[in-house]
Recover the amino acids of this structure.
């Protein structure tokens, strides 16, 4: 058995020394407080002295039960003959050790408590600050949202105004807005609306179609209908010039417009210039024979009088002519400078036509081409050509949907 004495500023420090020196199997025989020796010793804090022992054979006795771990043992019996005074002293030492441990624990607890309280206060402070910040962010977000929706509303209003100024029918504007809202969930700017509108308009206007030629070798008969003065005769001459000069088609003219002498003369002039034969018919029945006479032609273009759709007798005659002609293609010629109401009336009067293509003239005179969209939307009929000037043969083209859309949206 080895017995050693260890001192420390407190029991903990002395115990640590025991453990380091003798290992954890050491047995604590006693602990006590001691005053340092010397003149000033009494002024200093007392030290703790620990008396510890370890069995010398401990490491060799493999089969022995391991010694109990370091702990404070009642000293009586270990030291053999101990006096009662010693026992009391040891008891006092133990009490003071426990007291010091308790104090340590108390101060540790106090420290933990202070730390916890401090942390809690800090946490609460941070929470309050975070709440404050969240409130600020929330109110800012509400403001931004309001601004965005306000801007969004303004955006749609401005956009709607552009369409209305292009004289688009309100029903079409509503449908477009509906569709745009489906396509563009969060418009960043009015350009997003225009982008979507462009696609919708291109879709509504559809692919234009020109004359579809018969493939059975027989001439393709095309009849031009529409109100007076819209440009039927001029347009017919433009188309004839294109097909005869650029596509080498053999063409024949038939005119049913004998209402005005000048009208016949007008077409005759173009016929002479273009070297195209012309037949003048005075009754609807005559058209069959006139068509038969052109059986060697590729294309027969039939001009009609600008019958007023308001004059029932004149209009009945026009219907008879259409029925008699059995044309392969009917072009309803409308001028872009017609008003919206006039257009609606015309469309409803020409509703007797089974199939026809839309041909718009005077794009150059129309401040807005909304009529093209309105009529295409109302009738569902194909666009064909558009004309933009009096010049024969130049001022005609296959309807350019992209340009029409640009004009409607006033974008370049
Ligand atoms: N500005 C302009 N005038 C046109 C256009 N097409 C025809 N016109 C003119 O409109 C007037 C009537 O044309 P016309 O062919 O006689 O019409 P119709 O009565 O329907 O046969 C004429 O003075 C034409 O020169 C066009 O695209 N633009
Ligand atoms: Mg005419």
């Amino acid at each position: 058995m080895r017995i050693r004495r260890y001192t420390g500023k407190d029991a903990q420090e002395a115990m640590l020394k025991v453990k380091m020196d003798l290992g954890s199997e050491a047995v604590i025989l006693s602990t006590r407080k001691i005053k340092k020796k010397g003149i000033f010793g009494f002024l200093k804090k007392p030290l703790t002295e620990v008396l510890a022992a370890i069995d010398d054979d401990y490491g060799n006795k493999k089969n022995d039960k391991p010694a109990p771990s370091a702990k404070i043992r009642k000293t009586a019996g270990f030291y053999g003959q101990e006096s009662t005074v010693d026992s009391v002293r040891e008891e006092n030492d133990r009490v003071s050790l426990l007291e010091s441990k308790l104090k340590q624990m108390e101060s540790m607890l106090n420290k933990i408590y202070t730390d916890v309280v401090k942390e809690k206060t800090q946490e609460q402070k941070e929470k309050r600050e975070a709440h404050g910040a969240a409130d600020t962010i929330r109110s800012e977000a509400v403001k931004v949202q309001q601004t965005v929706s306000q801007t969004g509303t303004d955006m749609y209003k401005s956009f709607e105004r552009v369409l209305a100024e292009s004289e688009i029918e309100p029903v079409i504007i509503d449908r477009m807005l509906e569709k745009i809202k489906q396509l563009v969930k969060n418009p960043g700017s009015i350009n997003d609306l225009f982008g979507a509108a462009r696609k919708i308009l291109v879709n509504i206007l559809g692919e234009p179609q020109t004359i579809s030629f018969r493939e059975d070798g027989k001439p393709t008969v095309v009849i031009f209908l529409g109100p007076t003065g819209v440009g039927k005769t001029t347009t017919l001459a433009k188309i004839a010039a294109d097909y005869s000069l650029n596509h080498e088609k053999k063409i024949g003219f038939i005119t049913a417009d004998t209402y005005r002498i000048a009208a016949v003369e007008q077409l005759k002039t173009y016929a002479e210039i273009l070297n195209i034969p012309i037949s003048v018919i005075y009754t609807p029945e005559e058209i069959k024979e006139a068509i038969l006479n052109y059986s060697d032609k590729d294309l027969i273009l039939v001009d009609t009088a600008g019958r007023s759709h308001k004059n029932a007798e004149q209009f009945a005659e026009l219907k008879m002519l259409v029925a008699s002609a059995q044309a392969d293609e009917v072009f309803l010629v409308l001028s872009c400078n017609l008003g919206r109401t006039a257009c609606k009336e015309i469309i409803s009067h020409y509703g007797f036509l089974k199939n026809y293509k839309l041909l718009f003239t005077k794009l150059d005179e129309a401040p807005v081409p909304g009529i093209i969209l309105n009529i295409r939307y109302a009738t569902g009929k194909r666009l064909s050509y558009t004309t933009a000037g009096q010049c024969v043969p130049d001022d005609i083209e296959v309807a350019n949907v992209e340009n029409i859309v640009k004009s409607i949206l006033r974008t370049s």
User: Anything to note?
Assistant: Residues 6 and 195 are 90 Å apart (CA to CA). The pocket of magnesium ion (ligand 2) is lined by residues 232-233, 257, 263, 303 (CB under 6 Å). The chain has eleven helices and eleven strands.
